[in-house]
Design goal:
The chain is an alpha+beta fold. Helices cover 16% and strands 43% of the residues.
Length: 171
């Protein structure tokens, strides 16, 4: 290691200001689902989803280490990424808030490995956990895609600057 690399110290950031910077990047909105060890259906809203690779077909997303659903996602070994459309804000908020039964009154089908797949999703990816990596205060899940369904029913639901947004005019 050279002297220049040794002198670089880890900076300290105001987490609110850093979150505001992250908010400048518009993302799609997903609901990620799995099944807990006791058979309870588990789901949460996330905008940390990203494609990783086409060959092999891999995706990633991150979950806070303090999330109550972390153990379900780690133990089941499979998860589904439900990519949401612009008319699904209320459904997404259902999965963003704490609740004893987030699937009450939610239309879904059952996919591979018993995964709940939301009927209202624009697209669904059924995945096997390929790898997990601890990254700071999150567990990053990398999933191998086993099956997908591209319904492409409506424009995507977006998240930007801490709020939901709609896709504007194409450039």
């Amino acid at each position: 290691m050279n002297a220049q690399a040794q002198s670089v110290q880890t900076p300290s950031f105001d987490p609110i200001e850093l979150r505001n910077v992250f908010g400048q990047f518009a993302t799609g909105v997903t609901v990620i689902t799995t099944v807990a060890e006791d058979g309870t259906l588990v789901g949460l809203a996330a905008n940390s989803f990203s494609s990783v690779s086409l060959d092999p077909a891999l995706v990633s997303w991150g979950l806070d280490l303090n999330a109550p659903s972390l153990s379900a996602f780690k133990s089941h070994g499979h998860f589904a990424i439900n990519i949401m459309g612009e008319d699904s804000k209320d459904l997404v908020m259902n999965f963003a808030r704490p609740s004893d039964d987030k699937f009450a009154d939610v239309a879904y089908t059952t996919g591979r490995a018993g995964l709940p797949l939301l009927n209202k999703a624009n697209a669904v990816l059924e995945c096997r956990t390929h790898q997990t990596i601890r990254g700071g205060d999150h567990e990053v899940f990398i999933g191998e895609i086993l099956n997908f369904d591209n319904r492409d029913s409506q424009p995507p639901l977006l998240f930007h600057k801490g709020s939901f947004a709609k896709l504007g005019e194409a450039l």
